[in-house]
Amino acid sequence: MNDQRDRAVALRLIAAGVVYPNGTRALHSTSLDFAEGAFTVLLGPSGAGKSTLLRSLNGLVPLSEGHVETSRLGVVRGTRGWREHRRSTGMVFQQHQLIGRLTAFANVLTGRLGHHSTLRSLLPLSPAEKHLALDALERVGLLEFALRRADQLSGGQQQRVGIARALAQAPNLILADEPVASLDPATSERVLALLHDICRQDGLSAIVSLHQVDLARQFADRIIGIGGGRVVFDGPPKDLDEAAIRRIYGGTAPTPVHATRILETTP
Amino acid sequence: MSGTMQQGILAAERADGRRQALLVAGVLAICVAALAITGFFDAQRFAEGIPALAQLGSEMFPPDFSRWQFWMRPLLDTLAMSIAGTILAVILSLPLALLAAPNTTLHPALGHVTRLVLSFLRSVPELILGIIFVAAVGFGALPGVLALALHSVGMVGKFYAEAIEHADPRPVEAARAAGATRVQVITKAVLPQVLPQLADITIYRWEYHFRASTVLGIVGAGGIGFELIAALRLIAYDQVAAILITILACVVVVDSLGAALRRRLK
After folding, report:
1. Pair type for strands A222-227 and A230-235
2. Going by fewer Cβ within 10 Å, which terminus of chain A is more open, N or C?
């Protein structure tokens, strides 16, 4: 815990809240500091507001109140500011969000878009850009599949392409929204381990939403429990006891899947 | 207890059946009325018409292909018109489709206006556009091309817009998250997804343009249709038959070429 307090702050959420246009309040006013180089897991059941919180951090979900502040940009505002922030923030999605009919390589190259002007991106990319993308594919162990169509890869491989796309941005922050929710348990652990190792090696800060308590315990430096659109737990994995889990999953009616997961992983 | 419930279900089922029978009867009545209004039940006209048709048929036989070398240039013109009309339609349709599709438009109101423009364009038949352009730029292939292109923008633009609208939004979100601008999102995340559909629409439209440009010749807008109307005016039905057979052969070739191209996109 002290270890985290000492680290520089990479990203700060200030009194931020989200109300969707249909009137649903998805996130109550929340302030959080995310330390440089830390692997933070947002833990909570489906519909708790993890996705909203995560997407508000790069403006995919606009904040209804409050601000996002980064160490480099200060308070992020304006189209230009958000674009600048997104360029240095890699995002990994639950559904991979690849273009199926394009190659893995072409998908990874879309990670470079933020680094180019609109006009420049209509011209062929430089060899340096292409090598950056291939390096990213090599890091996730998929260099040999670079020219394979994305829809011909397995679920785990597609998610690794998704990670490579985020890495190709040369980011200093990675946001991952339920990156392993559509994978089987063994693949989930491998993909998450890969993401964790890369972030550790490169000193990247990562904020990852998960609904599996065991995976959160295994990889997180810090766990933030979300329930009913509020932070209901914040601490290192060792402090995540049964009472804390009840607070996280008791706020909303947990689905049977979550209920069994809790039983399995509670000592 | 369950007996009365079953009675209720059966009664409801009978009411459903009656409603359906009434609906079918109504549709049938409308169809019969339409046939009656257009004179389909006038037996006398058919009695007189069938011998006239037979006479016409006998005059068409055997088809006279003796002037075939005069048809090659107009046929080439028709082919060129169909291709030129298609490329012009594509160039005009793509920007309009991007403005019309709700997921790529600059503003919802602009989307509505663009869709209105597209439906206006396709509601003007190309034959009318052909007459207008012949009056404006004179006889020949050019007015035909302009007529084909302008009418097709309404159709192709609508189909393009629908393809674009149904692009998967998830890769689009991924591109936005990487800091892509609006134009980058369209060129790198939307268009790559829908390119096969756009090509399919375009090639299908080219096939259609070849068939439509034969009709346009009739109003003086160039191509093989011009020869067809000339033969008709000379009452040379054997030549008319030969031209029709030639057109049919070309349509079959163009259609199968187009179908083969579109299969390769899959």
Report:
1. antiparallel
2. C
> Does residue B166 share a domain with residue B35?
no
With a CB cutoff of 8 Å and minimum separation 6, the contacts of A40 are A34, A205, A206, A207, A208, A220, A221, A222, A223, A224
Residues of A in contact with B193 (CB under 8 A): 99, 101
Q: Which of A60, A101, A118 sits opposite B183 (nearest CB)?
A: A118
- Do B153 and B170 fall into the same domain? yes
Q: Which of B185, B184, B193 is nearest to A116 (CA)?
A: B184
pLDDT digits (tens, 9 = 90+) for B140-161: 889 999 999 999 999 999 999 9
DSSP annotation string for B18-78: HHHHHHHHHHHHHHHHHHHHTTTT-HHHHHHHHHHHHHHHHHH-S---TTGGGTHHHHHHH
Whether residue B40 sits in one domain with residue B17: yes
* Chain A residue whose CA is closest to B170: A97
End-of-domain residue from the set B14, B39, B60? B60
What are the residues whose beta carbons fall under 8 Å from the beta carbon of B121, sequence distance 6 or more? Answer: B150, B151, B153, B154, B157
Number of folded domains that form chain B? 2
Statement to judge: residues B112 and B39 lie in one domain: no
User: Do residues B28 and B44 share a domain?
Assistant: yes
User: Please, which residues have CB within 8 angstroms of residue B140's CB and are 6 or more apart in sequence?
Assistant: B221, B222
Q: Which residue has the tokens 């006891």?
A: A241
Show the domain range for B25.
2-60
Measured between its terminal Cα atoms, the distance across chain A in Å is 23
CATH code of the domain covering residue B112: 1.10.3720.10
**Are both B210 and B231 inside the same structural domain?**
yes
Interface A-B: count of C-beta contacts within 8 A? 78
pTM above 0.80, yes or no: no
Last residue of a domain, one of B19, B41, B60: B60
- Tell me: the pLDDT tens digits for B50-62? 888 888 888 888 8
Task: Write out chain A residues lying below 8 Å of B108, CB-based.
Answer: none
Burial of B108 (0-12, 13-18, 19+ CB in 10 A): exposed
pLDDT-derived band at A263, boundaries 50, 70, 90: very low
Q: Which of B170, B181, B183 sits opposite A93 (nearest CB)?
A: B170
In tens, the pLDDT along B12-69 reads: 889 999 999 999 999 999 999 999 999 888 888 888 888 888 888 888 888 888 888 8
Q: Are residues B41 and B173 in the same domain?
A: no
Q: Is B188 on the interface with A (CB under 8 A)?
A: yes
Q: Are residues B149 and B50 in the same domain?
A: no
- Distance from the Cα of A137 to chain B's closest Cα (Å) equals 17
Q: What is the mean pLDDT of residues B169-195?
A: 92
